[in-house]
């Protein structure tokens, strides 16, 4: 076992550490360019493990892409040699089944008691899978969520993971069954985002189920007629930060929803290309502002 003060610093950092396994885009607020500033501003050390480097997010035409799958193996081996420990592991977009296997191995090797393991199973949105997401990728993602404590799919991804047809107008009893079915696959907490329950789409909702206490929560989101990439990454990042600060699940959900709503509104009023993402820098100070719970609701407890 290594000795001396350097080893002690590695093992017993006074700042909680989060391993963030995401891609890195040079332009456009998504993935690591969202995850790092949010969690850092909330007081956590983010250790990024990039899965790919892109010139911009994939919403921009002509983006350039560098796959880092082979490099990830070397980075992970170095982290092992440093005896690093993490208070949380957070994975997002993964570009191949090889990367999914690597993340599963990463979780098993670096797992520790009381660790938060969060998987955002990025597969698709608005009723369809992304072009790079094959049926094999969906099947591999099913094996990854089984190792997570928390998963945060949107409604499209939740349906894909359960091999059921996407239904934008799914009713509340059906949504509760969806949450429980995903929880039965392994995670303790399942959070489904981007749920529409109005024909006019004036509201969206986040639903969450915790099988430990068998409670289901609902949080209402204000609707703004714009679509910004990276808001899912921002939502999950704030959620993780809140839970690691000691907030309850409903309060963490509420704080994350309020932060995203504020960021979207702060961006929407400007003549700004939505594909570039939200004006994150304008709203980061809100993460340290006093919080007023506003919209979370406990549904009938089982």
Question: What does this protein look like?
Answer:
Strand 8 and strand 9 form a beta hairpin. The chain has one domain: UDP-N-acetylmuramoyl-L-alanine:D-glutamate ligase. The protein contains 10 helices and 14 strands. The protein is globular. The chain is an alpha/beta fold. The strands form 3 sheets. Strands 3-1-6-7-10-11-12-13-14 form a 9-stranded mixed beta sheet. A 3-stranded mixed beta sheet has the order 2-4-5, with no helix packed on it. 37% of the residues lie in helices and 19% in strands.
CATH architecture label: 3-Layer(aba) Sandwich
What structural category do the secondary elements indicate? alpha/beta
How is the largest sheet built, in terms of strand order? Answer: 3-1-6-7-10-11-12-13-14
Shape verdict: globular
Largest sheet: 9 strands, mixed
CATH superfamily: Ribokinase
The helix/strand series, from N terminus to C terminus, equals HEEHEEEHEHEEEHEHHEEEHHHE
Q: End-to-end distance, in Å? A: 48 Å
What's the SSE blueprint?
Blueprint: H1 5-11, E1 17-21, E2 24-25, H2 32-41, E3 45-48, E4 52-54, E5 65-67, H3 69-81, E6 88-91, H4 97-110, E7 116-119, E8 124-125, E9 128-129, H5 135-145, E10 150-151, H6 155-161, H7 172-184, E11 189-196, E12 203-210, E13 215-222, H8 231-244, H9 249-268, H10 280-283, E14 296-298
Parallel strand pairs: 1-3, 1-6, 2-4, 6-7, 7-10, 10-11
Antiparallel strand pairs: 4-5, 8-9, 11-12, 12-13, 13-14
Helix pairs in contact: 2-8, 3-4, 4-5, 8-9
Summary?
The protein is of the alpha/beta class and 302 residues long.
């Amino acid at each position: 076992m290594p000795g001396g003060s350097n080893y002690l610093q590695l093992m017993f950092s006074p700042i909680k550490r989060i391993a963030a396994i995401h891609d890195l885009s040079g332009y456009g607020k998504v993935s690591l360019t969202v995850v790092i500033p949010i969690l850092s501003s909330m007081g956590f050390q983010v250790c990024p493990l990039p899965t790919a480097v892109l010139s911009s997010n994939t919403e921009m035409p002509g983006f350039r892409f560098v796959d880092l799958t082979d490099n990830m193996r070397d980075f992970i081996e170095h982290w092992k040699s440093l005896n690093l420990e993490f208070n949380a592991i957070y994975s997002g977009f993964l570009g191949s089944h090889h990367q999914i296997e690597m993340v599963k191995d990463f979780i098993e090797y670096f797992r520790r008691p009381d660790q938060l393991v969060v998987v955002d199973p990025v597969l698709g949105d608005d009723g369809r899978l992304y072009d790079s997401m094959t049926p094999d990728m969906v099947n591999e993602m099913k094996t990854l969520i089984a190792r997570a404590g928390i998963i945060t799919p949107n409604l499209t991804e939740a349906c894909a993971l359960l091999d059921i047809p996407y239904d934008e107008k799914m009713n509340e009893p059906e949504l509760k069954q969806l949450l429980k079915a995903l929880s039965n696959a392994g995670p303790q907490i399942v959070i489904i985002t981007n749920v529409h329950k109005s024909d006019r789409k004036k509201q969206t909702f986040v639903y969450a189920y915790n099988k430990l206490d068998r409670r289901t929560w609902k949080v209402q989101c204000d609707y703004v007629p714009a679509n910004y990439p990276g808001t899912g990454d921002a939502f999950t990042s704030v959620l993780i930060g809140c839970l690691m600060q000691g907030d309850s699940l409903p309060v963490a959900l509420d704080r994350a929803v309020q932060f995203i709503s504020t960021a979207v509104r702060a961006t929407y009023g400007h003549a700004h290309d939505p594909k570039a993402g939200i004006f994150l820098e304008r709203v980061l100070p809100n993460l340290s502002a006093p919080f007023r719970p506003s919209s979370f609701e406990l549904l009938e407890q089982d």
